[in-house]
Amino acid sequence: MSKKVNIENWQEKAPTLAQMEKINPFVVPEGYFDTLSDRIHQRIAADTKTSAKSRIIPMWTRYAAAACLACILGINLYLNLQQNAPAKVNWNEIPDQEIVTYLEMNLEDADAALIIDKLGEQGTPGLSTGASEQELETYINQYL
Fold first, then answer.
1. What pLDDT digit, counting tens, does each position of 32-44 carry?
2. Residue extents of the structural domains in the chain
3. How far apart are CA 120 and CA 88, in angstroms?
4. pTM of structure
């Protein structure tokens, strides 16, 4: 009953469509479905004959390619690290006054204490101020 109500319902909403003649606008050639299965089988057979054989690459060529790639990457990394390596500094060429000036500008209290602790009993080889140890301690305590 619901189906009949739906049919009447759309006919009321679209009377022009309901008045149109009911014909099938699609035409199938005669004998199309009679030979359809044969044509499908022929196409499948033709596709299997013409399909190319898949190439199987031996494992040793894969390993060789991986080894070549690893060598190229390793050489590239080595060369890049050599170019980016910091320049070796000859500390004897830098004047002592320039080092002292740099340390005065950039040295913080915590750094000075650490340097003093590290020097310990070694003293300061090669650096002579002409001051006694007592004078140096007084200076350090006064300014740090």
1. 888 888 889 888 8
2. 107-143
3. 28
4. 0.28
